[in-house]
Amino acid sequence: MLAGVIFDLDGVLIDSEECWSEARRAVVAERDGRWTAGATRAMMGMSAPERSRYLRDELGVDLDPDAINQAVVRRMTAAYRARRPLLPGTVEAVGARWALGLASSSNRELIALALEQAGLVKAFSAVVSAEEVAHGKPAPDVYLEAVARLARTERVRRHRGLERRPALRRRRRHGGGRGAQRSLSAGARRARAGQRERKGRRGPDARGDRARGHRRSRGREPPVGSFRPNGAPAREAPMVRPRDRLTLWAYELER
Question: What is the rounded end-to-end Cα distance, in angstroms, of the chain?
């Protein structure tokens, strides 16, 4: 069952590509750099440190990467405040059905500003900027970190616990998944042996045994965990011990 969803920011929740292009071009022009036709495409998905080094090394901006980063962020902040580039349907798309994470190549402060303008700060349980991981996109680092953080949130842990807690509790008590499978196999062998024994009987004794079994089970459903071999009626299925029933339940929950 789905426990959470990871969103991107630029181009998914906000229309920011034009803002990024204008901010970078302005920094390059201000420092007498040289803008190239493929620069925008080359920088798509880069983290802030990678982008700053590209502006210095490839486009000739004569500043250190930290200064370049700050210059771009200043221009992006001004553009966000002036335009508020929220895409239509963003608020509706980011609902409360699942736990949400955000994985973006933007700077952390720009992510915070965009979410604040959209009123979505509390909607995301895990927010990761590519400047916090080793490699920007298309490497999956930022998404993997967002998934790891989202998995540690209380909402996702509670969601996963509702599915696994009964099985895990019984596994700890009865020795784990392999023990559950061994118990199931043993229960199946006992059931088959009981069937063979009943089929081997003939005459009044066998009919009397069946009649007594019918009277004992009439009007009652077998307890949870009873084993029914090959679709046999419940009244003819041998019941396993309470310990085996718990183990069988754990096995079924794990399948």
Answer: 14
